[in-house]
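Reviewers of the previous submission asked for a worked example of the structure-prediction workflow described in the proposal, so we include one complete record here. The input consisted solely of the amino acid sequence. No template or homolog information was supplied to the procedure at any stage.
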Amino acid sequence: MAVERADVCVLMIDGNDGITEQDEKIAGRSHEAGKACIIAVNKWDIVDKDNSTTNRYTKEISTALAYMPYAPIVYLSAKTGQRVANLYPLIKSVYAEASRRVTTGMLNDLLNDAMTRVQPPSDKGKRLKIYYMTQTSSNPPTFVIFCNSEELFHFSYRRYIENCLRDTFGFRGTPIKLIIRERGEEAPHA
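From that input alone, the workflow returned the following structure tokens.
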């Protein structure tokens, strides 16, 4: 399938139809494959618009593709060429974000700061201890976090760390993969 071969997926949504079930399936494949993605709403030249149309479309797309908040949305017209030229620099930018490498030192500075701001979770008197984080690959950016207990590393704290990575380093347009390992487990090599 084209998604697996792509460096950056551009999900083209028909502005007249809005996001369809087929669009959602393709977006899901892109996300699951770890591909950088841009959402392009085409035929924007013929969509009846008022002051809230763009916001309404953006909200509809964001709701349907809630698992892809990282994907930028662009409104364009392939027929008239409106904003099409903006797509190419965005593709390059998103690819660069997906290819970004961050040093282990910078990641651990971010991790220490994040743990200072929001203490890791605990359960039944046992607290999650995070030892360090390292990036093992890019496209998509993949990070391994070593800790004392994978079970204590709740989804909400995982999301918090992902948000800290995005706030600090960007990664616009690309999914981030976090792998949690207990001390003593090997980091996967890419």
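Residues 84-99 form the longest helix (16 residues). We consider this example representative of the routine output the project will generate in years two and three.
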